[in-house]
User: Fold this.
Amino acid sequence: MIENETNNFITILTFYYAHEVAIVRSRLEAEGIECNIVDELTVQVNPLYSNAIGGVKLQVRENDAKQAIEILKESGYLTEENLKKPNFKVISFFDKYTSKIPFLKEMRFEIRVMIIVTVLVGIISILTVLLNADNSF
Assistant:
């Protein structure tokens, strides 16, 4: 079966907390727009993960996106400021170079970040211990 491109879900709005998406989702579903919520349960289990995973994502089908955006603008849930694409040069740079590392390239971006940070913290810890060990003699 060939999947129609307009049936793909796209993210139109993100939220820091899972409870924030409920009203907006209800508003869109009342208008007959099918919604998909991504990472809702992850943020419910641990709200501190919200920033790390990009928040709770409200998704609609591509062919419903324009109508959903208009509804959200009319309702005051979406402003022009929300629609601006953020500039993520550091993230793009990090993604570009870590995706070339053989054992990391198959992993999700978030996992690559955690592995690199863990390795860097480990190296710094080892260097700190070694430098302090030299000073104690």
The beta strands are 9-15, 35-38, 56-61. The helical segments are 21-30, 40-45, 50-53, 65-75, 80-83, 89-98, 109-135. Residues 5-83 form a domain with the Alpha-Beta Plaits fold (CATH 3.30.70).
